[in-house]
Design brief:
The protein is α/β, with parallel strands linked by helices. 34% of the residues lie in helices and 12% in strands. Keywords: FAD, Flavoprotein, NADP, Oxidoreductase.
Length: 551
Amino acid sequence: MRVAVVGAGPSGLMTFKYLLAACDFLATDPESVGGTFAHRTYEDGELVSSKQLTTFSGFRLRVSDPDFLSTDRYVQYLSGYCTHFGLWKHIKLSTTVLSIRQRGNRSTHIITYQHRGSPQTQEYECDAVAICSGLHVTPNIPNIKGMAQFKERSQFGVGKTVLILGSGETAMDLGYFAMQCPTKRVLMSHRDGFLCAPKRVPDPVILPILGNKPDPNRLNVPIDSSSASLFDTAYVHRRLRDHMLLWHYYDVFIKSTLWLVGGSKYGMAHWVGGISDKRYHASKIFFSKSNKAIPYLSALYRQERESSFIQRIRSSLIQVPVADTHGRHIGMAPWPSHVDEHGVVHFQNNGRPECHLLKNDKVKPDMVIFATGYTQTFPFLPGNYPTSETLDTRSTWHSSDLSTGFIGFGANHESYAYQLAIDMGAAPGFWEVLFRDGGWYKLPLLWALGANFNAKFRIGGPWKWEGAEEVLVEELWDTVARRGGFFGRVTLSGLPMAMFGSINLVLWVLDPVIKVCEMVVSSQDLHTWVCLRTVEMGRTAEPLSHKPLNP
């Protein structure tokens, strides 16, 4: 089988590496970097996903690397990945895919591509295609012209007014950087609010009214590897797995915790630009894990919002420290409708407080930065191909065409990784973990209390790796052991495990009874349906009688 991988970011490289490795298992010959982290990064850019989840299981980062890598270090790591696994000789860089089409009865794909600087196009015929790329989104706002990539802080200049379009992680980074430069004014524009979360589990100060201070030397665990997997994604009864109870718990947990430690359910010290209530539920939100700009965004609103009696009591008992903005702030703004001939930006009326503040304000920016994210659009795919929005099999394939796969497009990592491991027989069972040689207590505890690290699913299964156990008990054990404080150990681990473990136990015990009840109800429904159909056909039905039906 010949497979074309479109995209050279982490998803593309990982897919490519395992396709090459599959050649060894399946006795086939191989035919056949950094992505956006290399080409659209900026000065002091940093990943928001932790190294614990970002690192490939079979090629580890240095122990000395921080929890969150700079984009430069991550691109260096991806380059090392290619060298380590011998991928370079198969990679064609600086190549644009122009089109993909199917030949005959979808048995082969024809890739038309062009190397940079070459006037000639070439074609490649393959049996399957892996799509691992996305496109940058540039919204159409009338009268904004001239585009250049933002790369370094010096581009902010001196005494300039900067308008940042977007409220995601890149926008938050750039807003914070702009505050560290001699800018005159900075505004951030959003469409329908946002929800920021810290990259690390917060360490609130208990009883700050007594003068207690945070420990500057303590680094809590990254928030994306802070939850225990047992009874959350692993060993979850199907009835609980298919129910919204888990999501409702985390929805209440998120909102109440954010309010308790920061005063607002929309984020810690997040007093403006909160996500709209109609979109705010744990099952469908996307956290922006870059929140350094939040104190600057909330600076104009914080004093008024925190002055209430309840807020004063709350913040005297528990509070996550808020950074000092030294009198500087970022203005919040609605989404622009257009820019007039004088260069003044006109904003949409979203009915929020920031709209009222800007009502009589003339905003004439010297610089507009598009930090509007990415979308999964693929102009090289014709209409008869599936799209990332229509996938019905593990967010990767459409059942009508298993020769076209989409890799790396949005899913909840914890549940997704575990379900994939079950699908391919790589999820270890408790007894399998318990009776292994290494770390007689560390491995079972990490299996239960740790997040779904990739190395967990290489203890056994089709991609078994001898180094997996050492990575877990030597490297990743530190992540679980470092999880501290009431929130890290109780609310993120102990409480969910106790609550959902009990529910799972009850479901396992009562499942046979529930099945019998369902069968009885189902048989009654069937009997009722037969009777109704009989009446519809013009016959006389007597549901409780065994007499033959009269014509």
